[in-house]
Write a structure and sequence with these properties.
The complex is a heterodimer. In chain A, about 75% of the residues lie in helices and about 0% in strands. Chain A is mainly α. The longest helix of chain A has about 35 residues. Chain B is mainly alpha-helical. Chain B has a single domain, classed as Up-down Bundle (Cytochrome C Oxidase, Chain A), CATH 1.20.210. In chain B, helix 12 runs parallel beside helix 15. The longest helix of chain B is centred in the first third of the chain and has 36 residues. Classes of the chains: A mainly alpha, B mainly alpha.
């Protein structure tokens, strides 16, 4: 057992590192830096959201009332559960329990696909209701007697909604792919307590994508319950 | 000089294996640097071709060579190619890639496969942009201002924007690799205070790459989406705000000009220390000035928007912050000058280019201070004054530094010396050609000649003819190194491990270096630029 682990470790040490500790530190540090660039990537969209929400608050409230809060809340719960199974999976990899890790990762994949499925239902609803920006966009303001808001401004809300959740969903798809890779590599015996950086890094990525949704949900769904703010 | 008996050449990164596959699938940072060198050189000539077309059109006051539409496309494509596909990758992706692992005593960058991926992303992005250009071109200017780019332009905006988007990730990955390598891969004893300034300045540029590039990427993505689906985020007709685009664009693209100068400053620090045989004066301040420029660089973007309709108070604050950038830049110039003081200076080609850099960058930097002041900026906005200013920084600064670095490390990269006399001639031609091209543009701009027009009043002809003549000299100055560098690969004098008698880990390994850089991991016990304790030998080759 011990010898085979050392062999795995030696096999996994890339030529340009002095030892496993340096390799692990380096790859974790690299992942954190990558997540920093991801924050900046989403940051541009959050900045645009901030500006337009401040300018067109009431139109944004009207748009947000078209959201299905129950589906959104369910999805939030699904993602939080997936983060739990992911965290336990990383722990299992660290504790040299490859079978447990694979099971937990498969559960994570299930939650991830569940999230995407629910999201697809929501997208479909918006699509058939003409709540997709562009020539087919159509939006009735809540109170026809007092058209307080400009439908065009609500269209901007929907543009940002689609762009932000779409980019997030793309990250989810990539995440599911990465976890699938971890499952296959784990099945082939690639990881050991000395070498499980890929598991940990995919975990970090997964938590990051989860966290983005934790911000997106209140910003897009829960602006105000009151009609017209 | 050369040893009498040529022994069998020892194995190095160039002859370790052969064949196209061994290059295209390499993860060796030195080979990837060479791949970048070849690709950005190709881009430089494409961008240069567009520049020559612009200068030929401006030879006469009438718009007679190309139509105004074509002219718009020419300056746009010149800008896009030179900024995103030449200047930003120039020193970091070629020299940085080659040298940072050598300078920190590592076998490779932290993520060799990511490094190769970054080159492929660069190539895919470059091809996407070139296809957009060949099939019809882009006419928005390299800045893609909305709503022109999103609504009115009938050119291939989406293709060009996607090309830049993809190449942006190449830049992010390079920056990421540099930061992690400098943090985690340094040889034993190589503390931060012993780190060569080239590494410090590339580190600072890498911070900008990873923090700024994602923002421009998502912004250009929104431009593409707006063109494709009319989502209206930047379109005033749909309630969007074009100023938001400018803010997001310049949030990256202003710091990006520091990506285009900081690595060059690192090159200059190395060369000035070597050819004055002295430690860089105030090493710590030069190092921290790089970081200061990177940080301050993120706080000045709206000085590109003084006339775009931002509030006067915002403009005042951004003007003040822009002045602050001059402080760390001046720290560098003064410290280099102090390094030269009482140094044993030798005038080899890299040093000539470095002198050129110091003078031209100072002119470019000082005119930047003019432009940071609100009154002057309103007067010269969108005139040739601005064009001259940023060419003094970009071409007079960065391209000079890139040429200096190429000459300085060419012996390390190839194991061969370039012909010194020809190189000196080319340095002279570049300096003279550059000033003849761009100094008249300061005068043109001051007199009010607007940029981006293919025709101009006849009284501006003399200065425009001068500028075009200068551009021709400049072109010769750039063609010459192309020829003699290639020539030197076969006929150049063998360089030996340390032709400049320089300090620094990269000079302690053979030229060209072996695949894993060092036979054994070096242990550093001395500070950077330890020329005082170096035997005082004259530079012995290349005369």
């Amino acid at each position: 057992m011990a010898t085979s682990e050392i062999q795995v470790a030696e096999h996994s040490l890339q030529h340009h590192f002095a030892d496993m500790a340096q390799q692990k530190e380096t790859s974790t540090f690299g992942m954190w830096m990558f997540l920093l660039t991801e924050i900046m990537f989403f940051g541009g969209l959050f900045c645009a959201y901030l500006v337009y929400r401040a300018s067109y608050y009431h139109a944004f409230v009207e748009g947000s009332q078209k959201m299905n809060i129950w589906l959104g809340a369910t999805n939030t719960a699904v993602l939080i559960c997936s983060s739990l199974s992911m965290a336990l999976g990383v722990r299992a990899a660290q504790m040299a329990k490859p079978k447990l890790m694979i099971v937990l990762m498969l559960i994570t994949i299930m939650f991830g696909l569940g999230f995407l499925g629910i999201k697809a239902v929501e997208y479909h609803e918006h699509w058939v209701n003409h709540e997709f920006p562009g020539p087919n966009f159509h939006f009735e303001t809540g109170d026809p007697a007092h058209p307080a808001t400009d439908p065009q401004h609500t269209e901007i809300y929907f543009s940002l909604y689609w762009a932000m959740t779409g980019l997030h969903a793309l990250h989810m798809v990539i995440g599911v792919g990465l976890v699938t890779w971890i499952v296959i590599a784990g099945y082939l015996g690639a990881f050991s307590p000395e070498y499980y950086s890929p598991v940990e890094n995919v975990g970090l990525y997964w938590h990051f994508v989860d966290l983005v949704w934790i911000y997106l949900f209140p910003l897009l769904y829960l602006i105000s319950k009151k009609h017209g703010g | 000089m050369a040893t009498a008996v040529q022994t069998v050449e020892r194995e190095n990164y160039l002859n370790a294996n052969y064949g196209i596959k061994s290059w295209l699938l390499t993860t060796d940072h030195k080979r990837i640097a060479i791949l970048y060198l070849i690709s950005i050189t190709a881009m430089f000539w494409i961008g240069g071709f567009f520049a020559m077309m612009i200068r030929l059109e401006l030879l006469t006051p009438a718009g007679d060579l190309v139509s105004s539409d074509t002219y718009n496309k020419l300056f746009t494509m010149h800008g896009i190619i030179m900024v995103f596909f030449f200047l930003i990758p120039s020193v970091p992706a070629v020299l940085g890639n080659f040298l940072i692992p050598l300078m920190v005593g590592a076998k490779d960058l932290a993520f060799p496969r990511v490094n190769l991926l970054s080159w492929y992303l660069y190539i895919i992005g470059g091809i996407t942009a070139l296809v957009a250009m060949i099939t019809g071109g882009v006419d928005t200017g390299w800045t893609f201002y909305t709503p022109f780019s999103t609504t009115y332009s009938n050119t291939h905006v989406i293709g060009a924007a996607l090309g830049i988007f993809i190449t942006g990730f190449s830049s992010i990955l390079t920056g990421l690799n540099f930061i992690i390598t400098i943090h985690r891969m340094r040889a034993p004893g190589l503390t931060w205070r012993r780190l060569p300034l080239f590494c410090w300045s590339n580190y600072a540029a890498a911070i900008i790459m990873i923090l700024g590039t994602p923002v421009v990427a998502v912004t250009l993505l929104l431009v593409a989406l707006e063109r494709a689906f009319h989502i209206g985020v930047f379109n005033p007709q749909l309630g969007g705000d074009p100023l938001l685009f400018q803010h997001l664009f310049w949030f990256y693209s202003h710091p990006a000009v520091y990506i285009m100068i900081l690595p060059g400053m690192g090159v200059i620090s190395e060369i000035i220390a070597c050819f004055s045989r002295k430690r860089v004066f105030g090493y710590e301040f030069v190092a921290l000035a790089s970081i200061a420029i990177a940080v301050l660089g993120f706080l000045v973007w709206a000085h590109h928007m003084f006339v775009a309709g931002i509030s006067v108070y915002a403009a005042l604050v951004f003007s003040l912050l822009s002045y602050l950038v001059a402080i760390p830049s001046a720290v560098k110039i003064f410290n280099w000058t102090a390094t030269l003081f009482k140094g044993s200076i030798s005038y080899n080609t890299p040093m000539l280019y470095a002198f050129g850099f110091m003078g031209l960058f100072t002119v470019g930097g000082l005119t930047g201070v003019f432009l940071a002041s609100l009154g002057v900026d309103v007067h010269v906005t969108d005139t040739y004054f601005v064009v001259a200013h940023f060419h003094y920084v970009m071409v007079g600064g960065m391209v000079m530094a890139y040429m200096a670095g190429l000459h300085f490390w060419w012996p390390k990269m190839t194991g061969r010396m370039y012909p010194e006399a020809w190189a000196k001639l080319s340095a002279l031609l570049v300096f003279v050609g550059f000033n003849t091209t761009f100094f008249p543009q300061f005068l043109l701009g001051y007199m009010g000649s607007p940029r981006r027009y293919h025709a101009y009043p006849p009284e501006f002809q003399v200065l425009n003819v001068l500028s075009t003549a200068g551009a021709s000299i400049l072109a010769v100055g750039y063609v010459l190194p192309m020829i003699y560098f290639v020539w030197s690969l076969r006929y150049g004098e063998p360089a030996g491990p340390n032709p400049w008698n320089a300090v620094g880990l990269e000079w302690m390994t053979p030229s060209p270096p072996p695949t894993f850089n060092f036979d054994e991991t070096p242990v550093v016990t001395w500070e950077a630029y330890d020329y005082e304790h170096q035997p005082q030998e004259e530079v012995t080759v290349g005369h």
